[in-house]
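Let's practice the habit of predicting before peeking. Look at the sequence and jot down your guess about where helices and strands might fall. Then scroll down.
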Amino acid sequence: MFQVGDKVFYPIHGAGIIEAMEEKEFLGEKHLYYVLNMLLKELNIMVPVEKMSALGIRKVVEADILENALAALREGQRDTALNAAQRYKLHTEKMKSGDIYEQSEVIRDLVGISKEKVLGTSDKVMLDNAQQLLISEIELVKDIGTAQATEMLKQAVCPEEMSEIVP
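Done guessing? Here is the structure:
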């Protein structure tokens, strides 16, 4: 069970902090909710306590795991046999998993494609979303601001040509 003050990662919304626990009545039943303050879009979300794991919400990773995930951005081979629709489906599944390594693979694959050709709209959106989610987790794990986290991701993705990869 999570506690107030825990740093968490929600696959759809990125990293945030549990600000409070509140009991609310809905359709005549009382439920306990976590109030999550999400870094992206400065959003507060109420999530029923019993649905946290079903939604893939987890504690943010430890610093060593983050470092390994950032290193994975330059390792491994992408599957070049996939067409755009297959790639989108695979990347969507990876992003929904909430697994930081799979998220890194999505970024690695799309950055690799972008070096060979112009990304299509769905790939561009997927890459931007994956980067923003990872940046939000870097912020909480390293306790740094958005600009520093963005720079850290740029360095990890492509240290030799940092200019155009990350917004």
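How did you do? Helices lie at 63-71, 84-97, 100-116, 121-142, 146-157.
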